[in-house]
Amino acid sequence: MPHLTAPATTPTTRRDPDGMAVASFVLGLVGLLALNLFLGPIAITLAAVALLRGTTRRGRALLGLTLGIADLVVLAAFMQADSTISWSL
């Protein structure tokens, strides 16, 4: 049976943690505005994995980690103030 896909010419192992670092930063930033219950933990997880895999964008991963934690802190503050899980408009 013939091989239908071309072999990878460049290794993608270095780009993966860098993409995770950027994604954690973006998700953490968006999570401050909406869906912080879901986006905060995802941002924290992506940042932790990127740091463990040795990303070259360490600053972005740390910002993503910080913003993910801030998402959960904002959610807890609103839950404490309103005694609810959702935003009150």
UniProtKB/TrEMBL annotation:
Protein name as annotated: DUF4190 domain-containing protein
UniProt superkingdom: Bacteria
Its keywords, alphabetically, are: Membrane, Transmembrane, Transmembrane helix
InterPro entries in UniProt: YqfX-like
Q: Which residues cross the membrane?
A: 20-49, 61-81
